[in-house]
Here is the input.
Amino acid sequence: MLGSTSFRNPRARDSGAAAILCFVAVLMAPIGVESQQLRYDREYPAVDYYAASSQINDWLLANYGHTAETIGGHAGIRDISQLLYVAPQHIRTDKLAPLGGGEGMGVTGDPTLASAEKGRQGIQMKVDAAVKQIRELMGR
Here is the structure.
């Protein structure tokens, strides 16, 4: 699931749930929080993984020499790389083209430069940012 995430499970106390799962893009990252440590009267928003996008861009600029234009935004190097890492069977690599093949295609950047390795690093940055934020919100 993409988007900001907050979670509250009032039944977790009764169900014996032992950990919170934080959804980051399409990846779940258990962070090992015992259910007794949770406050059931509040939500813990996990939105800092959005901030990781600029860190991913900086990493791509520094390590691969991509430009902001080639990295792009929607369906560019960052997005397609993460999907190649998480679910490569859903990417039609033979259809990838800079700007999606033309203006108005909804693609920015050059997704032909995407790779699963770049996606692995991007997902790790998002997971690290979300886990850090959740731990801070919970006072851990």
About this structure: Helices lie at 12-15, 52-64, 68-71, 77-86, 116-137. Residues 13 and 35 are 7 Å apart (CA to CA). The first strand starts at residue 21 and ends at 24.
